[in-house]
Amino acid sequence: xxxxxxxxxxxxxxGWGAAALVVAALAVSACATGQRPSFDADQPLVEATGxxxxxxxxxxxxxxxxARFTADFTVLTRLGGLESxxxxxxxxxxxxxxxxNDIRFLDGPSNAATCNLTTDECEAVINDARxxxxxxxxxxxxxGPARRLRVDEARKLAPxxxxxxxxxxxxxxxxxxxxxxxxxxxCALDSGVLAKYDGNDLLIELTAFSDVPDETRFETS
Length: 221
Prior knowledge:
The chain is an alpha+beta fold. The protein is built from four helices and 13 strands. The longest helix is centred in the N-terminal third of the chain and has 17 residues, at 17-33. It is globular. The termini are close together.
């Protein structure tokens, strides 16, 4: 099987090893300033929302960039009742593989790619349009729901309800956010990985989690 570096070429990105140290340092200073590092080290600091239940989940989603893991998900796209499978692998704080059905997104320090595992075809860019039919983006497992949660917090009808839950055998921190049209649920593991999102558009649930990255998920076919 061809490796991403053999099958595609793209501009070199700076390594993320040093960025992980920056994120860790910012996490310490955040306690005094009320700010937290964002999920992506290239993005600016974000402010706490002031809702304790929401911020507890955001604290975790924003910290996923320094974790190593393999996570499996089931996804229900409510419009059309589409059921999908997804797997996310993050290794060495610099390489990510996100597989949604037969589409695989590879994001690393020297290349980026979107590959069709059925046809063995890759393009040297992250192309979320490949999974638009299931209403997901490649960052659905952390920074995507973090953005959604901040929007929902800003328009919530009452304070969110926070609680702890066990999901896929892992402890998760959750927040139920009442918004127009119903209540949305967001849950995250301490590692920062999304454990559950339940909204009127999607239901995303973690089904398995390991702190060992699965290197086979970086293959392009």
